[in-house]
Amino acid sequence: MEREKKDVILRVSGLKTRFRVDKKIVNAVNGVDFELRRGKTLCVVGESGCGKSVTAHTIMQLLPKTGYVEEGTVDYFSDREQGIRLTDYGRNSRQIRQIRGRDIAMIFQDPMTSLNPVYTVGSQIVENLRKHETISRGEAEKRVVKLLQDLGIPEAEKRFHNYPHQFSGGMRQRVMIAIAMVCNPRILIADEPTTALDVTIQAQILDLMGSMQQEYHTSLILITHNMGIVAEVAHDIAVMYMGRVVEFGRAEQVFEKPLHPYTQALMRSVPVLGMPKNKKLETIEGSTPDASTQFTGCEFANRCRYAGKLCYTRFPLDTVVEDGHRVRCIRYEEGRAHE
User: Fold this and answer.
1) Is 303 helix (H, G, I), strand (E, B) or coil?
2) CA dist 307 to 192, 263, 314, Å?
3) For 20, 215, 216, 238, which has the most beta carbons within 10 A of its beta carbon?
4) Residue 223: band (very low, low, confident or very high) from pLDDT cuts 50, 70, 90
5) For the chain, the helix, strand and coil percentages under 3-state DSSP, each to the nearest 5
6) SS3 assignment for 224-292
7) Which residues lie closer than 8 Å to 198 by C-beta, 6 or more apart?
8) Taking all residues of the chain, what is their mean pLDDT, rounded to a whole number?
9) Whether residue 228 has pLDDT greater than 90
10) What does DSSP assign to residue 93?
11) Exposed, middle or buried: residue 223 (CB in 10 Å: 0-12, 13-18, 19+)?
């Protein structure tokens, strides 16, 4: 594999992930393409069921037995290697087990189901550290206590010996961050890390992740449906719909000039500071189709205010509009997009 340009640490190309459910094939991810820049935050946004989490689990090689990669590649470019094609290895291969947790780590959506209730939080963090580094238990415990302190957990030496049920939701999420960050991974994937938390705790968790990212120069993939969070933290944005990236670009490009009708609809559904009190937020017409639906054209056509006959009969191509800002919409292929 050729050496990637220096600012890219992860590249996902043409990724298609499928699930066998009874006799049906569910097309969860349908040709996803994006790049993650070193030390930057990529926000993957879209409605529930659009394939965000499945994309993350595919990168981590954590698909269930019913899931498989039909096409595409995931390439990881570390400082030590020319490049590792993660999709060439199975989920339990030695290569993936070495990378998972050490180089690429993940914060899962629900910490209560991700943490083992019968082990102390300290032992669970230590286990991940000793799995990837040659270090004594005593040294590992000291390092974990220091990390818990850095993450704002009071009385860290005492809380080290507590069980998950003895922590609040916000504190459990900090423990999940500690498990993910203890080996100083190059890439951190956070799957809706603040969904079940109130807005104050959300802000604290995002600030913590940001400070950890700056300290350790970690590259971050943040999966969310919250455009307010995206506006705060994103360097790059990938907008997903029905398993495809329909728009990709720098945060300022996507927010200042959203191109895809779906992105535009998402923007119109977000409250803006200073907007008139009597102005109602818009909703996106229709509902997300079932993932097993077979399309002959654009998946968004049934909900799109600009859809024409061609939109229902041909898949749109990925079109670069300017400076890396790309969109999957027939109107831009033909050069007659509505502003």
Assistant:
1) helix
2) 31, 15, 12
3) 238
4) very high
5) 35, 25, 40
6) ECCHHHHHHHCCEEEEEECCEEEEEEEHHHHHHCCCCHHHHHHHHCCCCCCCCCCCCCCCCCCCCCCCC
7) none
8) 88
9) no
10) S
11) buried
